[in-house]
Design brief:
The protein has 485 residues and is mostly helical. It has helices at residues 9-17, 22-42, 50-61, 70-80, 86-109, 117-129, 131-137, 142-165, 174-190, 197-207, 213-237, 246-263, 272-279, 285-291, 307-311, 316-329, 334-349, 386-400, 408-412, 416-427, 433-452, 462-480; strands at 47-48, 139-140.
Length: 485
């Protein structure tokens, strides 16, 4: 602060870019931002999914809803004021991903005032060369931004606990408390499953005594105010909740579990005939048995089977009756529900050949002939380098094709290894308590996704993958430099 407060800009620049090893941060940042930019040039103007198209349309029409939480649409709207192209979103996410990754690796490198090169350097290279990090960063999707925030908070818990355990706790200022509160509420509102952080994070901060009581009180008060403003005041002014079909959202999240009951060939029910009549207003039980696998989301399939469109022909009462099958039949048939949840969860981790990984609507011109997207002229897939595009194609294909545990899909985008690291770190709490604290925080999100994840989609658990690059160096450095006493 003293250096930055001087009038001599050379002194300030020297401090920011050279002193205390800051130049290493900027090397990390330049390398990671450079490689991520190559992905953007290969896939220009970035990547857009169906969800991304829906959110982009909200930013054009200003007709916001909460099917995909509206804060990301506001984020896109703000970036469109700078440049009205998906590339602006990709560039913003490149800057944020490179900054967070470089900050964490730099912090770990100098965590004890010495350069811990051996635990850090290999994982920085893996981070930079990762195919999922590259394609996720350039995709217009709330999941990339949400994952960055989850990883930030996991590292914050580790860093604050590590410093506290070694007699140099973090000093919090009112300004830093406000920034942390903003980042906290952003994580809570960017994805629906982020809402669990509203309770979990303050409990972690309080239980580990990572903030003085006064600062923790300020953090909770400011966060509560920002959450009320974001979820209630601003959302109601924009009419977000009135325009959101929360019943449909609930249906999508429990649909696979309901289908699993009928696909099982038999389940406990005090009135099976009534259950069958209820579900067959939407889909025949024989069709469920024929087509159901965890990745189909068969009760909401709008493709080959089109049951999702049939859903809209039902009355609100009929839809609720189908949803209530989950609440009345799940507990007596917990073994079936848990089997379906385990299948979906481990499929998302990388096992099986039906995990959704990457799709770029810019590669599919038929999207733009749809009247739903007539407001999007000029969205043209135009890679800036044919050579880079060919390399990207090969890497994406290898990362997308599953041919067993030795295939590229299992190696390039496997979530099982970071998942095991998280479980191991939590189990080793006695020896690496700060790393375990971060791991336990990640496990809270994983538990919620196990219960509510609608399908085996990599993006839902991208934060698990991303955390793997940092968790192992954190554990090694902490194990080598245990707490005092």
């Amino acid at each position: 602060r003293a250096r930055l407060g001087k009038a001599d800009w050379r002194s300030a620049a020297r401090y920011l870019f050279l002193e205390r090893g800051h130049w290493i941060f900027w090397v990390f940042w330049a390398v990671s931002a450079g490689v991520l930019t190559l992905w953007l040039l290969a896939e220009w103007p970035g990547s857009l999914t169906n969800d991304g198209m829906d959110v982009w349309m909200q930013s054009i029409t200003l007709d916001f809803n909460n099917w995909h939480p509206y804060p990301y649409a506001i984020f896109i709207l703000a970036l469109r004021q700078i440049a009205d192209t998906p590339a602006a979103v990709s560039i913003a996410q490149i800057l944020m991903t490179a900054s967070l990754g470089s900050f964490i690796f730099y912090s770990l490198l100098y965590l004890d005032g010495r350069r811990a090169i051996l635990p850090v350097a290999p994982f920085f290279l893996l981070f930079v060369l990762s195919v999922p990090v590259g394609v996720s960063t350039i995709t217009c999707s709330k999941d990339a931004l949400f994952s960055l925030l989850v990883v930030f908070w996991a590292f914050f818990l580790f860093y604050a606990s590590y410093r506290k355990g070694r007699g140099s706790p973090i000093g919090f200022t009112p300004a830093s408390i406000f920034v942390l509160s903003f980042l906290f509420i952003a994580a809570c509102l960017l994805r629906h499953n982020g809402i669990i952080m509203l309770v979990a994070l303050p409990l972690f901060l309080w239980g580990a005594r990572l903030m003085p009581p006064k600062r923790l009180g300020q953090f909770i008060a400011i966060s509560a105010f920002l959450f009320a403003m974001g979820y209630y005041v601003v959302a109601n002014v924009l009419g977000v909740h009135k325009k959101t079909d929360y019943q449909r959202m609930e249906f999508v999240h429990v649909g696979n579990q309901i289908a699993a009951l009928f696909a099982a060939g038999g389940y406990y029910s005090d009135d099976y005939d009534r259950d069958r009549k209820t579900i067959e207003k939407l889909i025949f039980v024989d069709d469920i048995k024929k087509h159901f696998v965890p990745n189909t989301q068969i009760l909401w399939d709008t493709g080959e089977h089109d049951y999702g469109r049939r859903y809209y022909t039902l009355s609100r009462r009929e839809r609720q009756d189908i949803i209530n099958l989950y609440y009345t039949r799940a507990l007596p048939n917990l073994h079936i529900i848990m089997a379906e949840r385990a299948d979906t969860f481990f499929s998302a981790l990388g096992f099986g050949g039906y995990t959704f990984f990457y799709a770029n609507a810019f590669r599919s011109p038929e999207y733009w002939s749809s009247p739903d997207f007539k407001l999007l002229p000029g969205f043209i897939y135009s890679p800036k380098s044919d050579a880079l595009n060919r390399i990207a194609d090969r890497l994406i294909m290898r990362a997308s094709t599953y041919r067993g545990v030795r295939s590229g899909a299992f190696i390039y985008r496997n979530l099982f290894f970071p998942f095991c690291c998280i479980l191991a770190a939590a189990a080793l709490y006695k020896w690496i308590p700060s790393t375990a604290l971060a791991a336990l925080f990640l496990m809270v999100q994983m538990l919620l996704l196990f219960i509510a994840m609608p399908g085996p989609d990599f993006r839902y658990m991208y934060y698990v993958y991303l955390s793997g690059f940092f968790l192992f160096p954190m554990a090694v450095i902490e194990a080598l430099h245990p707490r005092r006493g």
